[in-house]
Design brief:
- By secondary structure, the protein is an all-alpha fold.
- The protein folds into three domains: 3-81, DNA Primase, Chain A; 103-187; 203-331, no CATH class.
- The protein is built from twelve helices and four strands, in the order H-H-E-E-E-E-H-H-H-H-H-H-H-H-H-H.
- The protein has helices spanning 3-10, 13-19, 59-67, 71-81, 103-131, 143-164, 167-188, 203-208, 212-236, 248-269, 278-284, 310-328; strands at residues 29-30, 42-44, 48-50, 56-57.
- Strands 1-2-3-4 form a four-stranded antiparallel β-sheet.
- A hairpin with a 3-residue loop joins strand 2 (42-44) and strand 3 (48-50).
- The longest helix has 29 residues, at 103-131.
- It starts with a helix and ends in a 28-residue tail after the last helix.
- The structure holds zinc ion.
- Zinc ion is lined by residues 32, 34-35, 37, 42, 50, 52-53, 55.
């Protein structure tokens, strides 16, 4: 039997879905990994069908879509993961488990992330423009009011372009906004207790520029940080919910930048896992790990990918992102103080359709 026949005859889509981390409930229903699925709307059996987004196919189609690979690579992965024999088989080789993302998919994540950030920023500016409006002609102008006046039109333009612009226009805005978001991240991150600068470049870059020492120190700090995240979750999860103070210790010790980086790396290598929210996947792919493969064919992100249960870790990531958002906000605009302000109207926009 050839590879494709052997795989299709030996593995059901349901088995593959469970093997690759989807939780399949009664009657073979699960949350669809191919669209933002709140309730289980995908049926997995021998084949799969999603009643939400109409995704449909066999186990090889399912796996290739889940990992963003060709059908042949998906079949090889299934054969390896389920120990399936087939004609023309060479010596079984270990198949990498990491999610490999295609360029269009990476762009969709980044587009979606930038869009959400812009909507949040626009809402903040709207609030500032009314809350800090000068009371008279000669009153001093509040910098927040000024920022709102200066930036609102640009943000509106960017949002419109992300919804209706050309592909080139969208790409330009996404890369501009990402650069700005990353700059802002570096600016607002405070000094952590573990005083090792986060090293962003690849090992090859470090070797070329004589920065291997910085690279290694940062790499080992990432690994320590990963371990302490796992311990923090274990200590703050009571079986039902994660205590909101779970993040305090690691945030203080390693700083928001490294904690974010370690969490983003984790979500990137496990992005096939439907238990991470779409918003957190979008966020994770806004981080760059240049050239993550090491000389041995491994992936440096693996050494600090957190092994905590994805559903709990997703909650941990929410807490971290919330804490960073609060830190980035100017003191006066913190949520508990903003109660006196006029309520912010949610944007009446629909996010661009990222399903395809
Ligand atoms: Zn679907």
């Amino acid at each position: 039997m050839n590879l494709f026949e052997a795989v299709k005859n030996s593995v059901t889509t349901r088995q593959a879905a469970e093997r690759y981390g989807l939780r399949v409930g009664h009657g073979g229903m699960c949350r669809c990994p191919f669209h933002d699925d709140k309730n289980p709307s995908m049926k997995v059996d021998k084949r799969f069908h999603c009643f939400g987004c109409q995704a449909d196919g066999d186990v090889i189609g399912f796996t290739s879509r889940l990992f963003g690979t060709t059908a042949r690579d998906a079949a090889l992965r299934l054969a390896s993961d389920f120990g399936i024999q087939y004609d023309g088989q060479s010596r079984p080789s270990p198949v990498r488990q990491n999610y490999t993302i295609s360029e269009p998919e990476l762009f969709r994540h980044r587009l979606s992330f930038v869009f959400d950030e812009l909507v949040a920023y626009r809402n903040q500016l709207m609030q500032w423009s009314s809350q800090y409006e000068p009371e008279s002609m000669d009153a001093e102008i509040d910098p927040r009011f000024q920022e709102a006046i200066v930036n609102l039109a640009t943000v509106e333009y960017q949002l419109d372009a992300l919804l209706t612009g050309s592909d080139a226009e969208k790409r330009m805005i996404v890369s501009d906004c990402l650069r700005e978001i990353r700059r802002k991240r570096e600016e607002t991150y405070m000094e952590p207790i573990v005083d090792v600068p986060v090293y962003h470049e690849s090992a090859a870059h470090a070797r070329k520029f004589g920065e291997l020492e910085q690279y290694r120190k940062s790499h080992f700090a990432n690994i320590d940080c990963k371990r302490e995240i796992e311990e923090a979750v274990a200590a703050h999860f009571d079986g039902f919910r994660l205590d909101r103070h779970a993040i305090d210790g690691v945030m203080e010790k390693y700083g928001p930048e490294r904690v974010s980086l370690v969490l983003a790396a984790t979500v990137q290598v496990k992005a096939w896992d439907g238990r991470f929210s779409k918003a957190n996947k979008d966020w994770a792919f806004s981080f760059d790990f240049p050239d993550p493969k090491n000389d041995l064919g491994g992936d440096r992100r693996d050494s600090y990918a957190v092994t905590t249960h994805p559903a709990i870790l997703d909650g941990f990531i929410n807490l971290v992102r919330q804490a960073i958002r609060e830190r980035e906000m100017p003191r006066e605009a913190k949520p508990e103080l903003a109660v006196v302000a006029a309520p912010v109207k949610p944007a009446k926009r629909k996010a661009p359709d990222m399903a395809r």
